[in-house]
Design goal:
Blueprint: H1 3-10, H2 14-30, H3 39-48, H4 55-72, H5 81-93, H6 106-125, H7 129-147, H8 152-156, E1 163-166, E2 170-175, E3 187-192, H9 199-210, E4 219-221, E5 227-231, H10 237-247, H11 259-271, H12 276-283, H13 288-293, H14 303-312
Antiparallel strand pairs: 1-2, 2-3, 4-5
Length: 318
């Protein structure tokens, strides 16, 4: 790879590159389309998959095809009126209901943490190093993910050399790029040491056990307790989380995903009177709408507020 190639590759997130490459392969190899494509071919491709793929997935496929054509110097067929009209029609006939990850409540986080703490002790007593390391890793991953409201890809990109500990205070975690950091200026996040469910203690215990000094924080662990050199893939965090949730006795663990930690923290913070501005600043959201999408109100149906209003409007007794 030349220096030019490296810099071009660095301009895109790895997850985006993989998704776009997969989308282009699907158009060419699975559906049998030809590149460069015509607007009519793209429209027929959308129509062929309108009932089997979600609208957001189709939009991602369009974005990938648009990127391929721009990169190769061809006119972008996805901007043609026909393609836009077909996409609009698909949205009208097959409206997509937004699927959101279930937020992890603090009570369930407490249950998971207690199970992991017990698993660490059990594995240490049994000299089961691989099990002990996995429990230490997963405890640090879950507590950091919750209290810092990190996305899966942010957890996977944490590097030891970019983390600074202040004893008794907390951690400063630096990420060279985040989803909202369009200019790749890098962002420093702080997470506090807590009296319980402490992410700082969990992280320190993981580092002490592994003696890692640089490279990815969260890595694969084989059956013999050997650590891999690369980080866990963001998609692999979901089965890791669901395994822990199921083992800890959390009901319906398959309803949770990597975003459950982020949504769980946002919901907890809102319930404890964090205003939207404070929550946005802590998490890193750029607009209030993003923050509100992550908050699961404890009075979701509005019943408590309406009943309080009814009580105030109750007619005087005769």
């Amino acid at each position: 790879m030349t220096d030019l190639d490296r810099y071009v590759a660095a301009a895109e997130r790895e997850h985006t590159r993989r998704s776009y490459a997969s989308a282009v392969r699907h158009f060419e190899e699975t559906w049998g389309g030809f590149l460069p494509a015509t607007a009519e071919a793209v429209a027929r491709y959308l129509a062929a998959h309108a009932e089997s793929l979600a609208l957001n997935t189709l939009k991602l496929r369009l974005a990938a095809l648009a990127q391929w054509h721009r990169d190769q110097g061809f006119a972008d067929p996805t901007k043609a009126p026909l393609v836009r009209q077909v996409l609009k029609g698909i949205g009208a006939l097959h409206p997509a209901r937004e699927q959101r990850a279930l937020p992890l409540p603090l009570a369930e986080l407490t249950r998971i943490d207690a199970w992991l703490a017990a698993e660490i002790l059990r594995a240490a007593d049994a000299a089961a190093r691989a099990d002990q390391l996995r429990a230490l890793r997963d405890r640090a991953l879950i507590l950091l993910g919750f209290w810092r409201a990190f996305r899966s890809d942010e957890l996977s990109r944490l590097c030891i050399q970019d983390i600074t500990a202040v004893p008794g205070e907390g951690l400063t975690l630096y990420l060279t790029r985040t989803k909202t950091d369009r200019g790749s200026a890098g962002t420093a996040f702080k997470v506090p040491a807590l009296s319980r469910l402490c992410p700082v203690q969990a992280y320190s215990a993981w580092i002490d056990a592994t003696q890692l000094t640089d490279g990815p924080v969260f890595r694969r662990i084989d059956a013999h307790g050997h650590l891999g050199p690369t980080s866990l893939h963001p998609n692999s965090l979901i089965p890791v989380l669901r395994h822990c949730f199921a083992a800890a006795g959390v009901p319906e663990p398959d309803r949770y995903s990597g975003h459950s930690l982020r949504r769980g923290f946002a919901t907890w913070a809102s319930a404890h009177q964090w205003d939207v501005k404070d929550l946005m600043e802590y998490v890193g959201w750029k607009d209030p709408a993003s923050a509100l999408r992550y908050i699961e109100r404890d009075d979701a149906f509005g019943r408590r507020r309406i009943e309080q209003g009814l009580a105030g409007d109750a007619p005087a007794s005769i």
